[in-house]
Design a protein that fits this description.
Layout lengths: L3 E7 L4 E7 L5 E5 L2 E5 L4 E3 L1 H12 L3 E6 L8 E2 L1 H8 L2 E5 L2 H12 L14 E3 L4 E4 L2 E7 L8 E5 L2 E5 L19 H12 L6 E4 L16 E3 H7 L9 H12 L8 H8 L24
Parallel strand pairs: 3-6, 6-8, 8-9, 13-14
Antiparallel strand pairs: 1-2, 2-3, 4-5, 4-7, 10-11, 11-12, 12-13, 14-15
Helix pairs in contact: 4-6
């Protein structure tokens, strides 16, 4: 089955969000929704998520699932906002518990009892299936970028999260806590074992890195990635990939929003409980990363 897919691009964070559905008037899922955040003022807004809501209302879609491919380090999740507005279940890979353990010491998250079960309705296991109306979804555990990355296989499409980018940009970094380049190599091989014409949908694209002012691209294919991906095309061995990825990652700066976004996204987009003055606060751990 070929699902209908509507993409939305958030320019500030270079992030793609998706609505997946069979046809108008049916159930749908949203993947990797963005809550807007201004780091200068620490002000949040729902402009990007509201575009998704408008599309759903225009096409008479009911929200069944709000899916996260992983705990993002470069944008705030709008999962909680969407659920509060339209309902649906929030799901992420079960290995988020590993990610939680890695970051608890940095942010002292246990103080607020911030365990995954308090925020995510479903923690997905590898190969677990569920339905978006008549569409069947299979969750694929694809670690490497983080321990909890999940790709979603729906019909002829796979939503790859932060594993692959467009072929001219390569693959995701592996230097965050719990990242592993060898694991990412194997995860990508799993994705590239799908048929050549399988549609692959990216979580990010960075058109500013290209010449000519191209528009961002969200869709590739298994065949295109096997042939043209600059980091992991056919013929690249695991050892070669790990060496390249390890060297390259040492040159990368941390994402600008990693410290605030992790605290929000480990809570499925919920803000920390407010202090006695009614204001929610994020923590910035000094001399830690």
């Amino acid at each position: 089955m070929k699902p209908q897919i509507k993409s939305f691009f958030d320019e500030a964070t270079s992030t793609f969000s998706y609505i997946v559905y069979k046809e108008e008037g049916c159930a749908c899922a949203v993947i990797d929704a963005v809550m807007n955040y201004d780091p200068k003022s620490a002000h949040t807004s729902s402009q990007s998520a509201d575009q998704i809501i408008r599309f759903m209302k225009e096409h008479r879609l009911s929200l069944n699932w709000i899916l996260e491919t992983h705990v993002h380090a470069d944008h705030f999740s709008a999962a909680h906002y969407l659920q509060s507005t339209l309902g649906g279940k929030i799901a992420i890979g079960a290995h988020i518990e590993h990610t939680q353990r890695l970051f608890n010491p940095f942010f002292y998250l246990q103080k607020n009892n911030a365990t995954p079960e308090n925020f995510f309705n479903v923690l997905l296991q590898d190969n677990q299936t569920f339905n978006i109306g008549d569409l069947t979804v299979t969750a694929l555990h694809v670690p490497g970028h983080t321990p909890c990355d999940i790709a979603y296989h729906i019909g002829d499409a796979v939503f790859v999260g932060d594993t692959l980018f467009m072929p001219d940009l390569g693959t995701a970094r592996c230097d965050f806590p719990g990242g592993n380049a060898a694991a990412l190599y194997q995860s990508i091989q799993r994705i590239l074992n799908f048929p050549d014409d399988t549609r692959l949908f990216m979580c990010h694209d960075y058109p500013s890195s290209r010449q000519g002012g191209e528009e961002p691209r969200c869709e590739s294919s298994v065949a295109e990635q096997r042939t043209h991906n600059i980091h992991i095309h056919t013929g690249i061995s695991e050892a070669e990939f790990v060496a390249m990825r390890t060297e390259r990652d040492t040159t990368l700066e941390l994402p600008a929003l990693i410290l605030p976004s992790l605290q929000i996204n480990l809570r499925a987009g919920q803000f920390p409980p407010p202090d006695a003055n009614g204001i929610s606060y994020l923590k910035i751990p000094l001399n830690t990363f």
